[in-house]
Design a protein that fits this description.
six-stranded mixed β-sheet; 18 helices
Length: about 450
């Protein structure tokens, strides 16, 4: 498998060559040149690791120890069950795919546990080191740090918006004292953090000198790993390989739902991908109107991991919409930088539906799901279920993707249910642990200085 840039200005490369990279040299994102397909029949009834090997082998055909890495990653010890991502049926035709069973209780663990082991394997073979630079709106940072803590030859520099995450999310990151973990709290919003990562990656000389790598979903391995649970969720919810389903996905940076788009391109019978946003509804506006319009200010909400105005992975989808024309994508992103928007209303969509959810909607949905099904969901999952039910179709199974454990957002759960959410074992007193982080201005030069003085 060869990979090309969404902006058409970088040479084609193999997976092992792009794994440790962030953006392509031309500023675009790497995508596979071809679209592999899978025969569903032989996969039904298989284990999570067997399905993962079949899916990932399509994208990582130059990783010699892929099977061993997959089997070491997806274990009952790490994810709590052999199912890895168990499907819970709320009522006939309505399901919740459990993605919060990893070490940091968020769906990001599914991909980042794999990415950490891939990094370690490749670096070990090459005898090299890597400085991972990432940005988080809440869950990516903790999942990446827990996946990479103590890994030989890897240092992690994670940018997060100061004061914009839940107390649980902050504690999961800032309480890590491993010497290879560096938390940088940025005086700004997530978009500022993400922009700084892109600016550092755009400095080719600095990136090469300090061996900068990426764990955000701009890294294709993240997307590929997420494709797997669309297949396992489908098999768990259906009996026949021809049966169509729809997936509802809370969306901030567009990586999770883009993985569903890839799964459908590989042959999974997905009728609709239902995208849910919070009050930061840039993506919902696009799928309703064709207009992609970045907001000047990001609204702080009770589903903070989706408080994003510029969705990195959206560029991969636009690349597909414009018939994989890299030159056109480059022009659109230049237009976005200068005007803050572009319009693709004349181009037909690809089976997406969308909607938005407010704080009041989240509270009502958390209460309703708990009253009807006895399940406590986090506010992001509530956004997903609220929008999912607006687009539910008779006789089409609907699978809602869980974002995180409710325990990570206690304040919202208290407001909705009048009590504390249950705490998973090992998380007692997490917020009381000592925390370590560096407060910095939203300035890429400050990030470079910090990396230069702390990188090994």
């Amino acid at each position: 498998m060869l990979y090309e840039s969404t902006r058409g200005g970088a040479p084609a490369r193999r997976f092992n060559e792009i794994l440790l990279e962030g953006l392509a040299p031309d500023g675009g994102l790497y995508v596979p040149q071809s679209r592999p397909t899978l025969d569903l029949g032989p996969l039904r009834g298989r284990s999570y690791t067997e399905i993962a090997c079949a899916v990932l082998a399509q994208f990582m055909d130059d990783v010699p120890d892929l099977k061993e890495i997959v089997e070491r990653t997806y274990t009952k010890e790490i994810f709590g069950s052999d199912d890895i991502v168990p499907l819970r049926t709320l009522e006939p035709g309505l399901h919740l795919l459990g993605l919060s069973n990893g070490p940091t209780l968020a769906f990001k663990d599914v991909a980042l546990q794999l990415l950490g082991n891939l990094f370690e394997s490749v670096l070990g073979r090459r005898g090299e080191t890597l400085n991972v630079l990432g940005a988080t709106s809440g869950d990516t940072g903790s999942a990446a740090e827990h996946a990479l803590r103590g890994k030989k030859g890897i240092d992690v520099f994670m940018l997060s918006p100061h004061g914009r995450m839940s107390a649980f999310q902050r504690a999961q990151m800032y309480s890590l004292m491993d010497p290879n973990i560096h938390n940088l709290a940025v005086k700004g919003v997530f978009d500022d953090c993400q922009d700084m990562v892109k600016q550092v990656n755009a400095d080719a000389a600095f990136k090469s000198k300090y061996r900068i790598g990426a764990v955000n979903s701009i890294n294709w391995a993240r997307v590929a790993a997420q494709v797997v649970y669309y297949f396992t969720g489908y098999f768990a919810a259906t009996r026949r390989d021809s049966e169509q389903v729809s997936f509802a996905v809370p969306s901030g940076n567009f990586g999770n739902i883009f993985a569903g788009y890839v799964a459908r391109a590989m042959g999974l019978p997905v009728k609709r991908l239902i995208l849910a946003t919070n009050e930061n509804d840039v993506l919902d506006e696009f799928f309703r109107s064709g207009r992609y319009r970045v907001r000047k200010a990001v609204v702080e909400t009770s589903s903070p991991s989706m408080d994003i105005s510029r969705a990195s992975n959206f560029e991969r989808y636009v690349f597909e919409l414009v018939a994989r024309d890299g030159a056109r994508v480059k022009k659109l992103w230049k237009q976005l930088e200068s005007n803050g928007e572009f319009d693709l209303s004349g181009i037909p969509g690809s089976g997406f539906a969308s909607g938005r959810s407010t704080h009041a909607d989240r509270i009502a949905t958390i209460r309703s799901v708990h009253a009807k099904y006895g399940v406590v969901i986090d506010p992001h999952t509530a956004d997903g279920i609220k929008v999912a039910l607006e687009h539910r179709e008779p006789d089409v199974p609907l699978i809602c993707l869980e974002t995180a454990a409710a325990a990570k957002f206690a304040a919202t759960i208290r407001e909705a249910l009048g009590r504390e959410p249950g705490r998973p074992k090992g998380c007692e007193g997490l917020e009381k642990l000592p925390q370590r982080f560096e407060l910095i201005e939203p300035d890429a030069a400050a990030v470079k200085r910090y990396i230069a003085s702390h990188a090994k």
